[in-house]
Recover the amino acids of this structure.
C-alpha cells in the first residue's frame, strides 16, 4: 500500500485540509508542536481504512468525539495505490448518526452495505486493524515494550502475534466437546440400562395373546349366532306389528271401496239418465249444423257488403252536405249583398240580376236537399237491413252454439260415464283383493300370536358376551403393545449403540485434535517454522543498520528440571561473541529493538499475503540521549530502498534538519490544522 493523498474535513483539529503524499519523497519527516495534529494523520488513515483510532473501537463507538467542535460532521478521503491499482476510501460521520462508507477501485464505485464494504477493504489490504498498526505503524515505544518483557511473557506475546494462541482456544473447545461426548456416552449407557431393565418374558406374553385370540374367536362366533337369533325375533315382531297395521289399513280400504262403489253406482245411473235425455235429438241437430254454418257465413258476407254500401253512401252524403253548405252560404251572403258589382259574374248588380241569382241558388239548394234525402233514406234502409241480418246471424250463432254445447255435454257425460264405470270396476277388483289380503293377514296374525317375543334374555346374553369380547380385546391390545414396546426398545438400543459407536469414534478424533492443538502440536510446528523466517527478516534489517556486524537468534524452549519450559530468549551475535539481548545497552540495544520490530512487521505482513510499501514511525525519542537519537536516524536512513515511502513523526527540533523532506503541521484557531512542505 502506497498513499497518494489524504483529504479531510471536520476531523479533530482539521477543518479542511489535503495532504499530497506524492510530493514528499522517499523519506519525509512530519514536524510540529505538540497538539498541532501530527499523530492525527495516522488516526485519519486508520479511520479511513478500518474505522478505528485512539478514541474508538471497531464498532465505531465514540466517533462523535473526533468531530471538530466547529463542525457537525467529518469526512475523510484516502487514496492509495497497491499492485498498480488505485483505491479510494471515503468515509464520513454526521454527529449522532451512523457512518457512511464509499469504496472506489480505479474510479468504479464498489460500495455495498457498510459492513460488506469494510470486509472488502480488509480483504484487499490482507490485514486487519491490529496487524496494520503492528506492521505499517511503529508507535511510540512499541519496539522496546516487546523487547523489555520477560522471556516467558515475550513468548506469550509472540504466540499472540503469530496467531497461535487460537490453538489453545481450539484445544479447550475440543476438550469441552470431548467432555460433552463423554457426558452423552454416560447418558446413553444409562438409557440402555433402563431399556434393558424394562424387558419382558416374550414367550409368556405371546402365549397369553394366542390363548386370548382363541377364546375371542369362540366368543365372537357365539355372539354372531345370538345376534342373528335376536335379529330374527325382532324381525318377526316388527312383521307382526306391520301386519296388524296393514290389516287395519285394509279394513279401512275395503270400507272406503264399498262406499265409493255405492257412490259410483248412483253417479252412473244419473249420467245414464242425462245421456238418454239428450241423445234422441243429437243426430238431427248434428246434421243441421253444417247448413246453419253456411247460412251464417252468407249473412256475414251480406253484412260486409251492406257496410261497404253504407260507407260509400256516407261519402256521397258528405259531398252533398259540403255543396249544400256552400250554396246556403252563398245564398245567405247574396241576400244581404250591397255591392254594386256581382262577385259571381262580375256584372253590375240590379234587382233583377240579384233575384235571378237568388232563384238559381235556391233551386240548387232544393235539388241538393232532395238528393240528400234520397241518400239518407238509402243509408237508413241499408242500416235496417244490416241490423236485421245481424239479428239473424246472432240467432244462427246461438243455435249453432247450442248444438255444439249439447254435443260437448254428451261427450263429457259419456266420458265421465266411462270413467265412473271403469273406476267402479276397479273398486270392485280392489275390494276383492283387499278382502282376500285381509283374510290372509288374519290367518297369519293368528299364527304369529301363538309365538312369544321374549328377547330380553337374548339381550342380556349378548351384553355379557360383548363384555367378555371387549375385555379379551383389551388384553390382546395391552400385550401386543408390550411386544411392540419391547421391539421398539430393542430398536432404540440398536440406534443408541450406533450412536455410541459414532461418539467413541468422535472421542478418538477429539483426542487426536487435542494432541494436535496442544503446545507440543501445531503451535510448536508453527513456531518452529515461523521463527527462522522471522529471524531472517529481523537479521536483514539488523545487518543493514549495524553495517553487517550483528545478527540475532530466537530461543523458544529451554530445559527445566522436569520438563521443557516455554521462553523467547534473544541471543545476539556481534561478530566476536554471542550473548543475551539483555546484556546490551545504549545504541546497540536500540538497533536490536528497531530491527526486531521492523523485521517482525515485514514477516507478519508477508505472512498475511500483503506487502509493506509504506512505513509510519512515531519515534518517541524525547527521553533518549543524542547518541540514541543519532542511531535512530541512522537506522531509518538505512531502510531507504526497503520501503517506497517512510513517514517519520517527531517533535524533536534538532532532528528536523536531518531529513531532506520536512512537512510542517501547524494549527490556526480559525482554519484549524494544516500541512505545508518546508
Amino acid at each position: 500500500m502506497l498513499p497518494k493523498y489524504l483529504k479531510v474535513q471536520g476531523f479533530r483539529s482539521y477543518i479542511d485540509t489535503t495532504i499530497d503524499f506524492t510530493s514528499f519523497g522517499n523519506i519525509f519527516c512530519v514536524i510540529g508542536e505538540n497538539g498541532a495534529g501530527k499523530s492525527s494523520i495516522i488516526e485519519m488513515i486508520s479511520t479511513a481504512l478500518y474505522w478505528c483510532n485512539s478514541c474508538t473501537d471497531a464498532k465505531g463507538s465514540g466517533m462523535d468525539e473526533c468531530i471538530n467542535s466547529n463542525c457537525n460532521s467529518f469526512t475523510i478521503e484516502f487514496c492509495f495505490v497497491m499492485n498498480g491499482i488505485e483505491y479510494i476510501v471515503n468515509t464520513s460521520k454526521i454527529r449522532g448518526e451512523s457512518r457512511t462508507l464509499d469504496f472506489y477501485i480505479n474510479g468504479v464505485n464498489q460500495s455495498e452495505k457498510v459492513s460488506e464494504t469494510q470486509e472488502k477493504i480488509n480483504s484487499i489490504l490482507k490485514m486487519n486493524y491490529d496487524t496494520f498498526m503492528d506492521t505499517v505503524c511503529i508507535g511510540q515505544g512499541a519496539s522496546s515494550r516487546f523487547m523489555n518483557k520477560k522471556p516467558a511473557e515475550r513468548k506469550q506475546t509472540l504466540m499472540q502475534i503469530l496467531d497461535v494462541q487460537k490453538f489453545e482456544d481450539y484445544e479447550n473447545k475440543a476438550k469441552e466437546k470431548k467432555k460433552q461426548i463423554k457426558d452423552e456416552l454416560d447418558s446413553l449407557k444409562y438409557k440402555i440400562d433402563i431399556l434393558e431393565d424394562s424387558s419382558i418374558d416374550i414367550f409368556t406374553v405371546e402365549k397369553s395373546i394366542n390363548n386370548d385370540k382363541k377364546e375371542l374367536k369362540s366368543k365372537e362366533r357365539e355372539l354372531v349366532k345370538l345376534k342373528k337369533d335376536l335379529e330374527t325375533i325382532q324381525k318377526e315382531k316388527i312383521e307382526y306389528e306391520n301386519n296388524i297395521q296393514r290389516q287395519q289399513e285394509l279394513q279401512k280400504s275395503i270400507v272406503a271401496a264399498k262406499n265409493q262403489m255405492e257412490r259410483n253406482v248412483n253417479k252412473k245411473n244419473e249420467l245414464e239418465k242425462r245421456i238418454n235425455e239428450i241423445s234422441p235429438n243429437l243426430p238431427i241437430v248434428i246434421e243441421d249444423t253444417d247448413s246453419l254454418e253456411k247460412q251464417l257465413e252468407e249473412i256475414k258476407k251480406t253484412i260486409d257488403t251492406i257496410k261497404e254500401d253504407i260507407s260509400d253512401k256516407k261519402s256521397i252524403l258528405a259531398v252533398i252536405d259540403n255543396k249544400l253548405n256552400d250554396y246556403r252560404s252563398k245564398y245567405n251572403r247574396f241576400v244581404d249583398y250591397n255591392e254594386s258589382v256581382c262577385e259571381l259574374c262580375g256584372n253590375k248588380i240590379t234587382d233583377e240580376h240579384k233575384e235571378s241569382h237568388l232563384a238559381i241558388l235556391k233551386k240548387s239548394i232544393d235539388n241538393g236537399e232532395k238528393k240528400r234525402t234520397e241518400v239518407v233514406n238509402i243509408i237508413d234502409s241499408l242500416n235496417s237491413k244490416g241490423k236485421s241480418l245481424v239479428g239473424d246471424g246472432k240467432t244462427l250463432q246461438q243455435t249453432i252454439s247450442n248444438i255444439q254445447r249439447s254435443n260437448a255435454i254428451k261427450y263429457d257425460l259419456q266420458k265421465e260415464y266411462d270413467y265412473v264405470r271403469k273406476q267402479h270396476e276397479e273398486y270392485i277388483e280392489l275390494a276383492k283383493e283387499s278382502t282376500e289380503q285381509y283374510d290372509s293377514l288374519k290367518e297369519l296374525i293368528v299364527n304369529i300370536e301363538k309365538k312369544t317375543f321374549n328377547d330380553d334374555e337374548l339381550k342380556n346374553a349378548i351384553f355379557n358376551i360383548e363384555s367378555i369380547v371387549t375385555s379379551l380385546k383389551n388384553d390382546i391390545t395391552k400385550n401386543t403393545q408390550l411386544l411392540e414396546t419391547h421391539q421398539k426398545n430393542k430398536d432404540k438400543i440398536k440406534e443408541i449403540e450406533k450412536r455410541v459407536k459414532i461418539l467413541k469414534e468422535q472421542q478418538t478424533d477429539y483426542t487426536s485434535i487435542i494432541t494436535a492443538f496442544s503446545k507440543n502440536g501445531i503451535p510448536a510446528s508453527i513456531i518452529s517454522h515461523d521463527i527462522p523466517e522471522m529471524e531472517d527478516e529481523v537479521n536483514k534489517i539488523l545487518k543493514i543498520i549495524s553495517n553487517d556486524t550483528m545478527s540475532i537468534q530466537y530461543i523458544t524452549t529451554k530445559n527445566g528440571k522436569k520438563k521443557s519450559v516455554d521462553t523467547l530468549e534473544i541471543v545476539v551475535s556481534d561478530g566476536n561473541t554471542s550473548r543475551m539481548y539483555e546484556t546490551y545497552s545504549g545504541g546497540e540495544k536500540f538497533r536490536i529493538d528497531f530491527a526486531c520490530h521492523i523485521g517482525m512487521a515485514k514477516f507478519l505482513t508477508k505472512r498475511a499475503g500483503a506487502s509493506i510499501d509504506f512505513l509510519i514511525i512515531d519515534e518517541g525519542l524525547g527521553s533518549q540521549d543524542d547518541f540514541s537519537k543519532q542511531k535512530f536516524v541512522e537506522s531509518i536512513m538505512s531502510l531507504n530502498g526497503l520501503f517506497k515511502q517512510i513517514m517519520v513523526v517527531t517533535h524533536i527540533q534538532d532532528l528536523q534538519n536531518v531529513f531532506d523532506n520536512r512537512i510542517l503541521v501547524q494549527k490556526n484557531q480559525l482554519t484549524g490544522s494544516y500541512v505545508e512542505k518546508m
User: Anything to note?
Assistant: The radius of gyration is 69 Å. The first helix runs from residue 38 to 50. The longest strand covers residues 2-11.
